[in-house]
Amino acid sequence: MRVVLIGLVILAFVFGVNPTRICFPELQDDYHLDRIVLPDWDATAISPSGHFRIYYKTSGIHAPDLADENANGIPDYIEEVGIAADSVRTVLLFMGYDPAPAPTYDGNDGYYGIFISNRGSYNYGINYPDGHVEIDDDYSYGYYTTGLLAMRLTVAHEYFHAVQRGYKQPNGDIYFFEMSSTWIEDVIVPNGNDYINWTDDFFNNPEQRIYETDGYSIALFGHYLSTQYDIVDVETKSVIIRKMWEDYANGGSAYYAMDDVLSDAGSYSSSFIEAWSDFIAHNFFNGIDENFYFYEDQADADNIDFTTDWLDEQIDFNLSLNDVSVSAESFKLLSEENVILDIVHDHSNFLGKWVVVGNQNENNAIYSASDATTNQLQQYDEIHFLYGRHPDNYSTEVEISVNPIFAPFAPKNLIGYQLDNSSIYLVWGSSPGPGDTLSYEIFRNDTLLFSTTDTTYNDSNFVEKTEYTYKVRVTSENGHSEFSNTVTFKTWPSAGEVYKSEIISVYPNPFILGEHSEQYLLFDSSQGFETLICEIFNIKGQKVVSDKIHNVEQGRQRIFVNYFNQKILPSGIYFVRILDSNKVLDTQKILLLK
Fold it and tell me: CA 133, CA 54: separation in Å to the nearest integer?
């Protein structure tokens, strides 16, 4: 029998069969309460707290592992079941839930019954209305999570169903029962994470109405409610879902219970559709951007991924509105230009979110939907519109107009160098727009330094011997461009801090004839010199240039040495040296290319 079950599990994974779970016998077509037949097991054990009786077989296919390492006459697996059940009950009582109703099955003797059997693939457990549950005998195969971990989360899940029956019997709104139990199993057994494997049923169709979900797939909504509305450090302190169960017990649907609690002005002042749309919005970033996580397990969950249409011009579309689901439309930006989206609606009777999933995480964002504009977006960024009906009105549709406003292209070829101890010179290529008025913003070390309509800038306010990084972007009435390339250099020391005469650099190096028009030598002078000699030698040691440099002051100097443009010389390696009379102060290798 076990071999057959293993084969069925393999076939399910290979051929993509979606596993299903049923926790309530009431959902089975042939269910009748008077036809419940308890398993006829030959051994029992009482949990340490005395609240649960565990029934098991000592032989046959339903028997658990009978190993008994502490030799107390109770199989270790059965002991673990009792400990798990006691723990679950303790946590639920601590959280303020009512105890489970007293069992009514024959021979229950006051204990809640847990029956152990070989249940087979994905049949984690089932909860009966007469006050007992059945769970697997070992969870060794056929489950996303196996072993004792699977047993513990199943006990949490199924016993919470027993507690739920004290509030309302599952004759409808099964999604709410399953969402709550799947949430609580992760609260009580946080290292289990079995529930993550069930999320795709919703994430693959996030526009479905909440009561159309299977409940298992939206357990993260429980974590969302606890962490975003109760804002607790541990979810065992959360009360919002318990309040929903208490409201649900008073009549009406589970949806109205959730909306009632969320709408309570004294506690949350929200609504179901506000919470639901925001929950869906945050799940676009699962495994992508932890800045948008409301719960750590989002790192392991798949993200919502709608099919997108290209957006590169104004587009108008309609979305239907209701208060139990979101309607969605998704686009991906096509233009290479940066863009701001101006978004306008034909009325304001809606609630919703815009989700920007950036090609780079820095563009990720969630907006509350309204007539407004987005931040600047880039090519391949996605924008998702998630809308629902405002609970205070009855609008059933909204028309949305999205108009791209294109930002200017970035300036290019930023270069910069220090002229002297009081001036850093920057120059860049102009931007072609678009835009009627272009202004260039100069950033130093990521802080806005100055704005100008010119394509040059002199920075005269800096500290000696300090590293600075510069970049430039252009702004217009349509927004700002990307940044230019960056230039980074360390500012010069003061004249009094130069103690050695040496060549710091020759730039550009290599010098490319026809591409570079000027060449400079950066020279530290330990004293003032009336005249220095600059000589250039080829690799054979032949002198090809000799020139005088007059009136050199102490400190760092930027000296114009544009000899390559003045001589007809072959490509190759050369050496430049500085002399004081006949004394060589320093030599440096340079390269000429044609």
Answer: 10
Q: Two tokens at 203?
A: 């994430």
Q: How far apart are CA 240 and CA 95, in angstroms?
A: 10
- Under DSSP, is residue 5 helix (H, G, I), strand (E, B) or coil? helix
Q: Please name every residue paired with 240 in a beta bridge, in sequence order, or none if there are none.
A: none
For residue 25 the two structure tokens come to 């016998």
The answer to whether 251 and 236 are in contact (CB under 8 A) is no
Strands across the sheet with 132-136, in order? 43-46, 52-56, 112-117, 132-136, 125-128
Q: What are 52-92's pLDDT values in tens digits?
A: 999 999 999 999 999 999 999 999 999 999 999 999 999 99
Q: Residue 154 CB: number of other CB atoms within 10 A?
A: 30
Reference 420, options 526, 505, 522; nearest CA is: 522
pTM of the model: 0.74
Reading phi first (left if > 0) and then psi (alpha if -120 to 50, else beta), residue 64 is in beta
Provide the pLDDT for residue 9.
41
Residue 591, CA atoms < 13 Å, CB-side half-sphere = 4
Q: Is 488 exposed, middle or buried (0-12, 13-18, 19+ CB in 10 A)?
A: exposed
* Neighbour tally for 265: CB within 10 Å: 7
Taking the C-alpha atoms of residue 527 and residue 529, their distance in angstroms, rounded to an integer, is 6
| Average pLDDT of the residues of the chain | 91
Q: How many CB atoms lie within 10 A of CB 590?
A: 21
Q: What backbone torsions phi and psi does residue 499 show, to the nearest 5 degrees?
A: -115, -5
Model pLDDT, residue 5: 39
Amino acid sitting at position 296: E
Structure tokens at 269: 């002042």
Q: Per-residue DSSP letters for 71-135?
A: -SSS-HHHHHHHHHHHHHHHHHHHTTPPPPPPP-STT-TTPEEEEEE---TT--EEEETTTEEEE
Q: Which is nearest to 311 in space by CA: 284, 338, 332, 285?
A: 332
pLDDT digits (tens, 9 = 90+) for 149-192: 999 999 999 999 999 999 999 988 999 999 999 999 999 999 99
Q: Which two tokens stand for residue 414?
A: 């930023």
Taken in order of first residue, the domains within the chain and their CATH numbers are: 1-167 (3.40.30), 169-300 (no CATH), 306-404 (2.60.120.380), 415-490 (2.60.40.10), 495-593 (2.60.40.10)
pLDDT in tens, 574-590: 999 999 988 999 999 99
Residue 113 has pLDDT above 80, yes or no: yes
Q: How many helices (H) and strands (E) does the chain have?
A: 9, 30
Per-residue pLDDT averaged across 449-473, rounded? 95
Q: What is the pLDDT of residues 254-269, one digit of tens each?
A: 999 999 999 998 899 9
For residue 268, give the DSSP letter.
T
> Quick check: 352 and 326 in contact, CB under 8 A?
yes
Other Cβ atoms within 10 Å of 129 Cβ, number? 20
Closest Cα partner for 227 from 266, 278, 193? 278
pLDDT in tens, 2-26: 333 344 343 344 334 456 678 888 8
Question: What letter would DSSP give residue 512?
Answer: E
What's the start-to-end Cα distance of the chain, in Å? Answer: 81
Going by the DSSP 8-state scheme, the letter that residue 57 receives in this structure is -
Residue 58: DSSP 8-state: S
Q: Give the strands of the sheet with 529-538, arranged side by side.
A: 511-512, 583-593, 572-580, 529-538, 543-552
